[in-house]
Design goal:
Blueprint (H helix, E strand, L loop, with lengths): L9 H13 L10 E5 L5 E6 L30 H8 L9 E6 L3 H10 L3 E6 L6 H13 L2 E4 L17
Parallel strand pairs: 3-4, 4-5
Antiparallel strand pairs: 1-2, 1-3
Helix pairs in contact: 3-4
């Protein structure tokens, strides 16, 4: 008997972990996850966009528009930053980070400072914004590689039915 040939690639696997992590986000509009992986294909950390520890996601706003202090923007930690901060103390030097959306300029600074050397993303839908332009300038200057994940997968289904295992 030969091995199964329809298994997912490492990149698809780690992006899948990032997408699964995003499902923990309470944000009603945008759910983003992140998965940090070392050079041995070991997961070092994960994160998703949400409120900082000790800040109740029931007591702070989730709005996208309105007075700044009444929106989510001054309060929510992005998935990339959470993944970096959730790391239990392992070195992030030369790691890769998998994210559904290209990182903003603030997360880009944390990525560079942490030693992460590669960003793998699915979507760059905000490519024309100043924040993403700044991110790419900084990554280019710091020689952090970034690449869009190319995959034929459109979806990956996870089943909790025991009979499917």
């Amino acid at each position: 008997m030969k091995k199964r040939e329809d298994y997912i690639s490492w990149d698809e696997y780690f992006m899948g972990i990032a997408l699964l992590s995003a499902q923990r986000s309470k944000d009603p509009n945008t759910q983003v996850g992140a998965c940090v992986v070392n050079q041995d294909n070991k997961i070092v950390s994960v994160g998703y966009n949400g409120m900082p520890l000790g800040v109740s996601d029931d007591d702070f706003p989730w709005a996208r528009e309105g007075d700044y202090l009444e929106t989510k923007y001054p309060y929510v930690c992005h998935a990339e930053l959470n993944a970096i901060l959730n790391n239990p103390g392992m070195s992030l030097k030369d790691c890769s980070i998998y994210v559904p959306l290209f990182p903003c300029n603030e997360c880009c600074k944390a990525i560079i400072q942490s030693g992460i050397r590669k960003v793998v993303y699915l979507s760059d839908k905000y490519a024309e914004t100043e924040g993403i332009i700044a991110s790419k300038r900084m990554m280019n200057a710091a020689e952090v590689c970034y690449e869009q994940l190319k995959t034929d997968l459109e979806e990956l289904t996870i089943s909790y039915r025991v009979e499917d295992v």
